[in-house]
């Protein structure tokens, strides 16, 4: 396959491109072939802190050229990992692209694949792509003592905290009336102000970033130390919405309202771009302290 195929046209496509690209090499990997151990290079950021320092080549994707294949193609996984879709997604992916160098081959267990798939497949689905057949979890070994298994300490990961998820795009209201803003504060679990910056990478892909601190208007179930990260993950997961909602240019201040669903997922409901001329938003945030819904 031509290496140019792996240059993603968009961040959303990069997920599925690399997943599909690994299909043929993985199925063709021969456990009996000669391998060698190499140090995981610093520029391989995806697996640099995975917990071991040496990897086996060829890897389970069939890649044997460290600088020409393994390192550049590993970067295509980074957007998916940045969404935080599963705490062991890095371990699962790195066990394939940078398998630990031991006396025997260590593949991911089927149970680890299932855990990562169940959490990360919805992120791919949010971009309109199914979990690839090439990563059918039935292809991985079921015996827990012969493969990389999920850690029990992650079994309740994020169940007690709100987590971002794929959703229908929230409404954007320009120059809202004061009552509209106060009603949004009343009818939703939380309301925050945040600056969101949309800029373009050298590759031409848009990148969305929560710039600076997130300020609470109504805190609800959100935690101060976690909310900025949650919003950043929401932008990464809901790229289609982010492209529609956030204009390119300088960082824009928004008032965001939303709720936490029964399954623990965070859903944004309304976005109010807060421009200097929007006196109604400023008045609404002041009145909220003494407002009765």
Automatic annotation (TrEMBL):
Residues 169-293 form the NTR domain. Coiled coil: none annotated. GO terms for cellular component: extracellular space. GO terms for molecular function: Wnt-protein binding. The keyword Phosphoprotein does not apply. It comes from the Eukaryota. One of its GO terms (biological process) is cell differentiation. Disulfide bonds join 113-137. It is found in: Secreted. Residues 32-150 form the FZ domain. Keywords: Developmental protein, Differentiation, Disulfide bond, Membrane, Secreted, Signal, Transmembrane, Transmembrane helix, Wnt signaling pathway. The chain crosses the membrane at residues 12-29. InterPro entries: Frizzled/SFRP (IPR015526), Frizzled_dom (IPR020067), Frizzled_dom_sf (IPR036790), Netrin_domain (IPR001134). Belongs to the secreted frizzled-related protein (sFRP) family. This is Sizzled.
């Amino acid at each position: 396959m031509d290496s140019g195929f792996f240059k993603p046209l968009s961040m959303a496509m990069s997920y599925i491109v690399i997943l599909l690209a690994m299909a043929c090499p993985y199925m063709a990997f021969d456990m009996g072939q000669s391998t060698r151990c190499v140090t995981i290079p610093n520029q391989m950021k995806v697996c640099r802190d995975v917990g071991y320092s040496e990897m086996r080549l060829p890897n389970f994707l069939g890649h044997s050229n460290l600088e020409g294949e393994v390192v550049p193609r590993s970067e295509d996984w980074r957007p998916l990992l940045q969404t935080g879709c599963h705490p062991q997604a890095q371990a699962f992916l790195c066990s394939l692209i940078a398998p630990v160098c031991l006396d025997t081959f260590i593949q991911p267990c089927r149970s680890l694949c299932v855990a990562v798939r169940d959490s990360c497949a919805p992120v791919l689905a949010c971009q309109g792509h199914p979990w690839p057949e090439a990563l059918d979890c039935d292809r991985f070994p079921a015996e827990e003592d012969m493969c990389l298994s999920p850690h029990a300490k992650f079994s309740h990961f994020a169940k007690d905290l709100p987590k971002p998820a794929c959703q229908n795009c929230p409404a954007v209201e320009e120059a809202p009336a004061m009552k509209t803003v106060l009603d949004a504060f009343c009818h939703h679990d939380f309301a925050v102000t945040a600056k969101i910056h949309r800029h373009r990478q050298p590759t031409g892909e848009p990148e969305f970033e929560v710039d600076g601190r997130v300020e609470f208007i109504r805190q609800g179930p959100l935690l101060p130390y976690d909310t900025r990260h949650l919003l950043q993950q929401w932008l990464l997961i809901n790229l289609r919405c982010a492209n529609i909602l956030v204009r390119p240019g300088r960082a824009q201040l928004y008032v965001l309202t939303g709720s936490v669903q029964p399954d623990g997922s965070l859903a944004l409901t309304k976005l109010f771009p807060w421009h200097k001329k929007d006196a109604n938003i400023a008045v609404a945030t002041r009145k909220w302290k003494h407002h009765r819904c």
